[in-house]
Structure formats: C-alpha cells, structure tokens
Amino acid sequence: MMYAIQTSSPNPNTNGTSSKSATTPPLRMSPEEFCDRFLPLRHPGDKLNARSGRRSRCIRFLAAVLSKFTGEIILESRIDKWGPGLTFSKIPCPFTSLLALLAQVYPDELQKMGNRF
C-alpha cells in the first residue's frame, strides 16, 4: 500500500522557490537515520545502551509521524514488527521512501515533534 502526505506544501522562500537544498534528496531513509535526525537523545550514551528506551521512543515517534502525515493510524505494534533494535531491517520499502520525503519537506515540524518524545 502506498501512502500520500496530507498537509500543506512547504512554505516558499522570498524569491518564490522552495526552501529545499539544490542537492538531490535521499530516495530512502531508514527509521534509525530518521530517529537520529529528529529524535534527540536524552543522554549522550542512549543510542548505545539497549536499556535506554531509545527504541521504544523511536517506535512511538515513528507511529506519531506516520499517522499524522498519512492520515491513517499506524500502530506502534506494526512498527515493532519491522525488526529488532534500531535497525528495523524488515521495514517495507514504501516507508523508507516516505521517511526520506518527510525529512526533506517537513524538517522543522519533525524536529518540534521529536522534542515532545
């Protein structure tokens, strides 16, 4: 199943062009990369400590982000099935593309969302 983003388009800058960089955006982004970029660490060693709660925070964050931008309820249990640890090696391909797209189009909003987790 493919998902569409349901929000307004990014704000153009003063010369009428998009605020995206001139470089080619990544076509895919892993959940680990997405969480590393938008979900701040509570403590410096959290990513390396399996008992830090980083994975559960990442799962909750991904569920909230995907639910908001797809208009569908994406359950945490669904994301949990994408694989162990922070690698989520069984993530369906459409989601890696969607995460990359969201990171390019809504970085400020995602940063604000991440700060709430």
Descriptive overview:
The protein is about 45% helix and about 0% strand. The protein has about 120 residues and is mainly alpha-helical. The radius of gyration is 15 Å and the shape is globular. The model is unreliable at about 1-20 (pLDDT under 50).
Q: What value does the average pLDDT take?
A: 82
**Unreliable residue stretches:** 1-21
What profile does the largest beta sheet have?
A: none
What pattern of helices and strands is seen along the backbone?
HHHHH
- Cα separation of the termini: 28 Å
Briefly, what is this?
With 117 residues, the protein is mainly alpha-helical. It has 5 helices and no strands.
Which helices and strands occur, and which strands form pairs?
Elements: H1 31-38, H2 54-70, H3 76-80, H4 93-105, H5 107-114
Task: For the structure shown, list the relevant keywords.
117 residues, mainly alpha, disordered N terminus
